[in-house]
Specification:
Blueprint: E1 2-5, E2 11-17, E3 24-28, H1 41-45, E4 50-54, H2 72-86, E5 93-98, H3 100-108, E6 117-123, H4 142-165, H5 170-181, H6 188-200, H7 203-214, H8 218-221, E7 229-234, H9 242-251, E8 255-260, H10 267-270, H11 272-293
Parallel strand pairs: 3-4, 3-5, 5-6, 6-7, 7-8
Antiparallel strand pairs: 1-2, 2-4
């Protein structure tokens, strides 16, 4: 593990697998998780690719946001700092994003393309931050919106703190996590692994990032991602419904979907072989398109 320092001095924990000179993959994990949530995926790809992952600010081994900023724009600038560090001059990477990671990638390309991003794979992600109830009507006066945002932030932060305190009550925690992230019948040990990841995330990071993601609309940002994008989606994903995938594909300039039957949201843990195979297929496709242009 090494460190990357982001724009505001926040320390990001960086992990790497595979040969230094191999084609590059950058992994961006989801809300409340860590690089560990990719499970066996990095090891399954490391024989052919250089695989790099990092923990989001305020998550796992990364530091708390030095500026207190957990907006998607801040997370996007973290991704840029990672790309600055790992992409060689004139080179590029394919970004593989799970859940919230898709929203971070879209925020990263908002307004302008990044030539360092040659392609993308969204795993269990419709490009939105999180699928939770949004704030009330945008037609409310600004002062009312500000008060409601403050209230919602307090609820999220308190919920995260309470979640950590009831961590020993595994039945409660695991039922909630299974409901929101797993399909029926997926292994209990994977539910427990995600629970340990999620409840270890610092409450301020969890609440701040969740709040920032509420107003994130992938449909307005996805047209800026003008590279080949593969969406790997579990047909029984309780967090990202099929309608959200359809909305995303409708605005992506170059998008394709691969559906994993009866799978849930945590595809990297439950179906690592499928995820790794689809990422490898996408890498071959992108390399072939580059060779054709050259």
């Amino acid at each position: 593990m090494t460190d990357v320092t982001s724009f505001d001095g926040t320390r990001l924990a960086l992990y790497s697998w595979g040969p230094q000179d191999a084609p590059l993959l950058v992994l961006v994990h989801g809300l409340g998780l860590s690089t560990d949530s990719w499970g066996e995926v990095p090891a399954r790809l490391a024989d052919r690719y250089r695989v790099v992952g990092y923990d989001l600010r305020g998550h796992a081994q990364s530091g708390d946001a030095r500026s207190g900023d957990y907006s998607l724009a801040a997370h996007a600038r973290d991704l840029s700092a990672v790309l600055d560090t790992v992409v060689p001059d004139g080179g590029s990477a394919v970004v593989v994003a799970h859940s919230l990671g898709g929203g971070i990638l879209l925020a990263h390309v908002e307004g302008s393309a990044d030539d360092r991003v040659a392609g993308a794979v969204f795993v269990g992600s419709g490009g939105a931050g999180v699928t939770v109830p949004g704030l009330p009507s945008a037609d409310l006066p600004p002062w009312a919106q500000a008060r409601l945002r403050s209230l919602w932030f307090a609820i999220l932060r308190t919920g995260a703190r309470v979640g950590r305190r009831i961590r020993p009550v595994r039945t409660v925690s695991d039922r909630a996590i299974r409901h929101f992230a797993f399909a029926r019948g997926e292994p209990r040990e994977l539910v427990e692994r995600m629970r340990d990841n999620f409840l270890a995330t610092r409450p301020l990071a969890l609440a701040g990032t969740s709040l920032a993601a509420l107003s994130h609309d992938p449909v307005t940002l996805a047209p800026s991602l003008r590279v080949p994008v593969l969406v790997v989606h579990g047909s029984s994903d309780p967090e990202v419904p099929g309608e959200e995938i359809e909305r995303l594909l409708s605005v992506l300039p170059d998008g394709e979907v691969f559906t994993v039957p009866e799978a849930g949201h945590m595809l990297p843990l439950t179906d690592p072989a499928v995820v790794a195979a689809q990422v490898a297929r996408w890498m071959v496709k992108i390399a072939g398109e580059r060779d054709a242009v050259a």
